[in-house]
Design goal:
Blueprint (H helix, E strand, L loop, with lengths): L13 H12 L16 H13 L2 H17 L4 H10 L4 H12 L6 H12 L22 E3 L5 E3 L8 H13 L12 E7 L10 E2 L3 E3 L3 E8 L13 E6 L10 E13 L8 E10 L4 E4 L21 E9 L5 E2 L3 H4 L11 H11 L2 H8 L5 H10 L17 H14 L7 H7 L3 H4 L5 H16 L7 H6 L1 E9 L5 E8 L1 E5 L11 H8 L3 E3 L5 E2 L1 H4 L1 E2 L1 E9 L3 E7 L1 E4 L4 E4 L9 E3 L9 E12 L4 E10 L6 E7 L2 E5 L1 H4 L7 E3 L9 H7 L3 E3 L2 E10 L3 H5 L12 H25 L1 E7 L1 H4 L15 E6 L4 H12 L6 E8 L5 E5 L6 H8 L7 E9 L30 E10 L4 E11 L14 H11 L11 E7 L7 E4 L14 E8 L15 H16 L16 H10 E9 L48 E10 L4 H12 L6 E5 L13 E2 L3 H5 L4 H7 L8 E9 L6 E9 L5 E10 L21 H14 L2 H12 ...
Parallel strand pairs: 15-20, 31-35, 36-40, 41-45, 46-50, 51-55, 51-56
Antiparallel strand pairs: 1-2, 3-11, 4-6, 5-6, 6-7, 7-10, 8-9, 8-11, 8-12, 13-14, 13-19, 16-19, 17-18, 20-30, 21-22, 23-24, 24-25, 24-30, 25-26, 26-27, 28-29, 31-32, 33-34, 33-35, 36-37, 38-39, 38-40, 41-42, 43-44, 43-45, 46-47, 48-49, 48-50, 51-52, 53-54, 53-56
Helix pairs in contact: 1-3, 2-5, 2-6, 2-7, 3-6, 4-5, 9-15, 11-22, 12-13
Amino acid sequence: MDNHANGDGPAESPAKRQRVEDERLGASSPPSDGDFLKELSQTTKEAVVCLTEALTVDQVRQLDACAWAAHKKGCANSKWLRETLRRLGVQDALGQNMAEALQLEVGVPIPRITNLIKQLKDPNGRRDMDDDDDEVSEDGLFGTRPEADGTRSPSPGASQDSTASRARQAASSSMWRKENLPPPLDHELEFLVQDPTSYKQGASIHSHCQTVHGSFTFRLLVFPMGTDSTNPPNQLAAFVEAVPPKGCEEVRWAFEGVRYQIAVVNWKDYKKSQVQNDIFTFTRENTDRGWHKGFVKAAQMTTENGWLNEDGALCIRACCSSRRAMIQQSNRKAVGYVGLKNHGATCYMNCLLQTLFCLGHFRHVTYSIDFPEAEQTQAVVSSNDISDDLGDDDRPALPLLVSLQNLFYRLQTSEAPVSCRELMRSFGWDTADAFMQHDAQELNRLLCDRLEEQMKGTATDGEIKRLFEGEFENYIECIDVDYKSQRDETFYDLQLNLRNDAGKDITSLEESLRDFISEEVLEGDNAYDAGSEHGKQRARKGIRFKRFPPVLYIQLKRFMFDPERMDMNKLNGKMEFPRILDLEAFAPGSGQYMLHTVIVHSGGVSSGHYYAFVRMPDGESGKSQWVKFDDECVTYCSEQAAIEDNFGGEDLQVWDYFQLSPRDIEQRGAPMHPRIHNAYMLSYVRMDKAQELLAPPVINGQEQKYALMVQRCQREAQLQEERRRARYEQMMRVEVKLVLERDVMKMQGFWTHTDVPSFRSLKASREQSAEELHREIKEILQVPTDHMSLFVLAIRKTRQMRFRQLKLHEDLKSLLPLCSLTNSSEQQIMVLAMVSRGYDPHTLEYVAAPDDDSVPHELYKWDDAIVLLLVKYFCPQKQIIVTLGIYYARISDTLQAMTTEPENWLKSRLQPYIDRGEVAPLPDGAYWLCWEEYGKLPKDVALRTADLSLKDNGFFSGDIVIWQPVVPAPIPIGPQPPAGDGDSDKEADEVNAFAQASSDEDDTVVRFGGTMTVSQYAKLLTNRIKVSLRQFAPEAPWVPKGLLAHSNWTQPIPPGIIASVPTEEGHLELSTSKSSTAPGEVAIQEITADARSTLGRLALSAAGALNLPEGHRLWLFLHGAPSAWPHGPFARTDGGSMREGVRTIGDELRNERLSRPKQYLTLTAVSLPPAPAGHRPIAIHFFDSSVCEVGACILHVKDPSLEDDDRGDLPETGRPDVNPKEVLELARQYLLDAKGDDGEQLRRRFASRRESDQAAAAAEAPTLPPLRLLEVCTGRIRSVCRQRSRPADDEEGPIPLPCWPGRGENFFYDALRVEPDWECEGEEAAQLVEVFTADLASDNPFGHPFLIKVPQGKEVKNVVADVQDKIGISGIEMKQMGCRCLMAEGENSQSTRKLVELQDDMTWPTERSEQPAAGQLAEWSPANAALCIERPHPMDVGRMIMHQRALQNKGLTIRAG
């Protein structure tokens, strides 16, 4: 095809391009001729219109110009036209049809027709689009044509109402007529309503019936003038009506998800047809569905409008697509069978078990096995069919046959769906196995094998083989000599292909059987070796059936491996299987087999569902009935639903084709959808043995064959009934947690109801009344009924959990919605038994004073005028809250009544705590403050007025009050420790820090005489944080993103390096426990902090706890090891806003996207030595030649940013600008000055070339090699500075290097690397190549990159070998870790980097900018090609949920036992 036609070439005018093409082909101006439109046939007109629509204006002009040139040469025939159309981009099929249609015009030149197409495409187009196109005329018959003198005159057909326009209109109108529509498809019907306007409103008419997929039959129900429900004006109403299947008039049938469409067709222009479609489930109760309006109105039903034809008929088309066969709704009593529960993804197992159960002889074999008494006892005790989890029962599982007996017995006698959990436990499965989808055929094979093992030595030994085992013969027979080889094999099922070796689909079961036994001729290179006597010979290889089993299982191999997609694929092609299978032709004497079972798989490879159809005999009529088993649902079904509906194949779909041209309709064809539900396994039963094999065993009391089994199962059923009753009784009982006042007095601090200990737990019925419970508790406590009242813990409207009085007329059942403590089946409520004042709360004995003649209060008569309060006491000195007990008073009494003489209830209850030293003595001159815990949280407190009544303070029964003493003068805050008690001093300082942190509270917080209040104490507890400090040495190993230099490959990530990582939601998961010791970790210390404290105070507290030397600075990090993440320090003791105390701990945690401060926080601490004035620290890490870190140090360099005002915005904690040469000299001096054994070891390890050389190098003093400095950022090398850099010439010396700019906000992470520069040695020209690792799934380099020396012309495979030798890992190990080597070209950027696959015969490229001479080493540049080792990131691999991956690959197993 010409590229210019598509706009791919230069911007030339179409006329000029056409003239050039004409000149190339030798074209001349078209001959003069008149209008020939009337000469064209209707077929040619349609072809002209189609080509006009298919081609662009430029393509039509090219076609016309080429046609004149071809006409002049005499080759303008249909073959030429078809080839030209193909070059212009017209599809081959369309081009052939057009060419043949145009060639039908005998005697009419093709150029004249192409000229007509051009005028139809662009009637106003003229050739004068270019100034130099006067040589060739393209206007043809309908425009202007050249005269002999070169002037232009109009052609006979040129006018405003041109013949071309009339031709286009005529061709278009004729193409869209109804006659050009294809006839109705197989799932479609067409109905003509004669004289529709003669009908009255409400009068209807039916069409003929149409059957879809052999199952769903429908017809049209038409109301030409509308239904009685149709609003004026009168208009057509049409409905699809489902016709009940034959013999199902009394059956509750249904067709699910039927898609239907109704179209009223316009005879003149079917594009105007009115179409509506929908989806509906047709049932016996709802047989029709359609529309009362939306179609053509009565006034429009005329011939002129096209809705009626010449005979006055209205055309209606309807189509339906029913992808499922008819279902029948029935129950256990109607069908006689029950289903099996699905425990997750066990539908495949349910189908197989139902088919085996319906084999009467198999059930008889299962029932006939007797077990010893010990196993029977075990079965009775162990069978548990009610557990929701396979792992809930720790008792041993039953033997497989016992579980199978129990399952079959329940299927035969139960009225409800049966559970398979007992059998699954016998398989050795756990809960995860229940959610694993497996193959039904695989399970059938395993189950038969295990049953055979357990039947050995019993009376039923060999029954499985006799029932399911067949035999065939594998043979190879030579054609030219008398030699053959035979081998017999047995089978339990046949696996038949749906597609043969040639890729052709197999459409019938008989054809697939013939394919199974088809012969293959071995010849040529594949000839058969007939031994030394005959050698290679031509031979026939195949299979012969010898005998078929009584029950033949056939698996249709619908799941096949697709080598093109490298994945499994399901074949949904049509495979027909007969009701009666004649196997006489395959094995003489086999006879005929009757279809008994169809197991269907619906879905695809990764997901799906199994269900089964079984032919069940009807004892009364002698006929059989098909039953569908779909887990718990068991229904009758038709034979068509069981057989034809499961052949597979494709279904016609509902199709709105009324906007397509007739040619498009023909080319596209009706849309098809594969039937994803199709037969997967079949079972056939030999007809002459069918009655014997299918007859179900009788298990009534008179049958003695299975007496032991029946007795055991009946005992099991009785035990299950007893367990069911026990569970019901348990559900009808309530656990009452009885609480006394002494139990409440044990509590300290702000506590919730879940912390309250109970005196005793009572079991009570839900129907039991409070009065009965009152009497029961009275017998337990031995307290008179009149002196006691009960209170139940309930939820208020304010969502507070508080005690309220339990009315005597209430029953326990009515309390559960608001008083239940649990959501489990066993409900719990908490009941407080309150005794009268005067009883000792600990002994419950009445202890009235000798001169006290008062009697106990009659609490039995409690009413709403009495209020019950739980009283606590807060000691400001010791900062402790104790519970004094429960106080009750009239609602009109004041709070002060609790503290007044003579009773002074508060002081009497507080004195024992003072005597035991739990609280400090009351200070002299103190007065009382009273607070209430009012909120849902216990630390929500509010001050109350003591001289007001309980009612005025808003108290109700169950409220909690806290008393505290206050003195006018300040009192010491916190305990006064003895001299020299360092811990107590630290605690006092901490308390004072808390007080200072809370000094900025708002006006609602009340402070009295310096005394800490309950409100301040509550906020202090709310903001208290336990901080775990993990101190790292400044010289800790470099671990970017948690990767040590030596753990980049084979070793796992060391524990404890990362304390927190960003999650998918963007939040932080902080460590809540001490992790294992990480490399470089020196100490762990815990402190307590307040979230309201400043970060500077936190850093100072941490420094004091870690005993930092004088002058040292402390940096605290939130994200684990200092060198693991690029984030700056969380807090520090030097500089910035932290010294000024602006930011608090809570503020910073919220900045880290934590919604609220946690109660436990892990921070990493690093102590930095003091730096000289004007200097900044940098981290240096020393690597050996094997890319392993051997040491580290902190160096101080002059900070250029202090002198450069433009660089003053650099973070103080990041790496400063450095001079690489200066850093190299400092690093060399550090290595030389390192003292002691550690320094000697550092120099030896650094100078050794391989780890294996370290022992040899230890005997002699090491000599420091040349050094090089590397700047590494996010897994890639950014800059390199070498001590032995190649000079520009002999006189100028080394090339000066610019200053490396500062980076980041954490110099520990943005560290620099020093390593030996051994690559400078050598006599051959070479270059330095970077090697880095990357996870291409995230397109993210990671780890520690390194440099290798690559001589010019070195092969890639040798470069990879050098890399493996350098890091000490073999090629096999790299392959096991999933590594792949690539070449990275371009800068160190994801957008510019290009990765290229490596080939063994490739040589490593030499950079064009660097052509080193012999003996020289080219300087490294970021633009040089690098070697990328692709592998999964170790952190990502560690986070994988390996359990789920193991589940996906876990095979199906059934243990023997």
